[in-house]
Amino acid sequence: MKYFIHTYGCQMNVHDSEKIAGIMEGLGYESCSSAHNADAVIFNTCCIRETAEQKIYGHIGELKKVKRAKPNMIVAVCGCMSQQTGVADKIKESYPFVDIVLGTSNLNLLREAVLSAQNKKRSFNVDFRQYNEEDFAQSRTSFPNAWVNINYGCNNFCTYCIVPYVRGRERSRRTSDIMAEVKSLLAQGYKEITLLGQNVNSYGHDLPYGESFASLLKEIGELDGKFRLRFMTSHPKDLSDEVIDAVAAYPNICNNIHLPVQSGSTEILRRMNRRYTRDDYLSLVQRIRAKLPDVGITTDIMVGFPGETEKDFEDTLDLVKQARYSSAFCFIYSRRKGTPAYSMDNQIPYAVKRDRITRLLACQNEVTKEISRNMLGKRYEVLVEGANTHYADTMCGRTESGRLVNFKCDDSYIGKFVIVEIEQAKSATLWGSIVKERQ
Ligand code: SAH
Ligand code: SF4
Ligand code: F3S
Question: Which of 3, 164, 239, 245 is deepest in the core (most CB within 10 A)?
Answer without folding.
Answer: 3
